[in-house]
Amino acid sequence: MKAFRIFKRNLRDSLKSIFRNFSLSLASISCITITLIVVAVSIILSLNVNNFTKIVEKDVTIVAFLDVDINEDEIDEVYDQIITLDNIEKKNVVFKDKMEITKDMMASSSELRSVMEDYTRENSPIQDTYQIKVTDINLIHKTAEELNNIEHIDVVKYGEGMVEQLVTVFDTIRKGTVGIVIALIIVTAFLIANTIKITIMSRKREIEIMRLVGASNINIKLPFIFEGLFLGIFGSIIPIIITIYGYSALYNHFDGKIFSDFIKLIAPTPFVYFISILLVAIGIIVGMFGSSRAVKKYLKI
Amino acid sequence: MDLIRIRNVRKTYKTGTTAIYDLNLNISKGEFIFIIGSTGCGKSTLIKMLYREEKPTNGKILVGGLDVGKIRNRKVYKLRRKIGVVFQNYQLLPNSTAYENVAFALEVLGIPKDEIHSKVLKVLDLVGLKNKAKQYPNQLSGGEQQRVAIARAIVNGPKILICDEPTGNLDPKTSLEIMEVLQAINDLGTTVIMVTHDISIVKKMKKRVVLLDSGRIVKDYKEGEYKNESI
């Protein structure tokens, strides 16, 4: 009961003191707001880059060319062997008949059309293929080698060299953006903590009196920690609104893709809500941490 | 019975300055004692050690059986609940009313609202401020502000009331009114320890007087003994 009373009082007093020290609270809230907007933008950018690289990586396909004289039973046998491999998406093993490929090629150019017009299943130099998607692009080389060892598979192609390069570049971009976001969050934490410190410095007397009348350290700290929590919540309101409405507007404006169909944006729902929760969590944690650190200074004797 | 026992206490600050040298002093329960001496003689250091704002470098201070020097920082509040402190500059919260300032001391201890209400009104009545409970510190005179500070110091029913020059900012008439309040508190059984420069008050009150000089007790006058020695 006593703990509940103290909790209730702390909650009420922290809200009261935010409004009583309004100008300083506003300074803290503004600082949290601005830094959280920067954090939100960088998180959105980073996650979109991440998403885009994943889409590109997912698009990478291995094409296994089958022997020219392969029969239908052997085609099925090859399929059975392919799906026993570890690193492949079982649902994404697609057979493409040589006649289908011929048709596609003829449709793409009139020159090819004139050359290929007379091809039949028997005389065509085109090979039947299996198009295969892998689950982990980092292991694509090994998977290609395993495919190459399967009987009746003639050649395996997946853009060797280029894919490895792509993976390295994307990996660097991903690590880079995550690094930037983490650095930004740390900088934000210190910036907010310092602003709150200034707010609390002005209330040194209050802390001194609390100590004097026999409030325990935790009793002194709690209202300030609650205050930090509220500052964090209030400070995250505008960044959340900007995230939800701004990102949705951006998404709609570009119709979900930037520059080309290739670069797809992450759909706003539930993405913006996830970012909002993250922002409010950062605001709360940093606010509480900042307040707690600032008060601690006055609790030492 | 001794409520406070000070044994061979020495206080040397980090700067190397020694404020108190091997001091011994006993203060009984219910006593009213003045600590006087010139500026820098160690008066404030001595009382700060009593409520553990400062730690003694050597020696032992027992307050109600608690060894003050050995209390851990996070346990200091247990000592503070037994002691009320009043300062020269009142130390009130400017944005809180007289009532709220006094109630604050009980709220931080998690006391129920009803109990706070009756205790605060009782103590404001004791210091003669019941009709000014809703006034803010800047609407009160110096003497009234000091009464609020005294009310806050005693609302929790401490065994000891420490006053660090409580009349330092007040005119002689108001100072005497404050002394009357302190006497009334003492009459209720609270031990009052008061540091002061105001010799006229000391003479008038006729209480025990401890004279400090350069960190040492040079004279301990019993009740009514102190006459007109200069400090």
Descriptive labels:
heterodimer; A: about 300 residues; alpha+beta; Alpha-Beta Plaits; 2 domains; two-stranded antiparallel sheet; 10 helices; about 10% strand; B: about 230 residues; alpha/beta; six-stranded mixed sheet; four-stranded antiparallel sheet; 10 strands; globular
Q: Residue-averaged pLDDT of chain B, rounded?
A: 90
Give the end-to-end Cα distance of chain A, rounded to a whole number of Å.
31 Å
Helix run count of chain B:
7
The run of helices and strands of chain B is: EEEHEEHEHHHEHEHEE
Q: Which chains have the largest interface?
A: A-B, 23 and 28 residues
What topology, given as strand order, has the largest sheet of chain B?
6-7-8-3-9-10
Shape of chain B: globular
Contiguous runs where pLDDT drops below 50 for at least 5 residues of chain B: none
Strand content of chain A: 5-15%
* Total number of domains of chain A: 2
Q: In this structure, how is the largest beta sheet of chain B organized?
A: 6 strands, mixed
Strand proportion of chain B? 25-35%
Unreliable parts of chain A: none
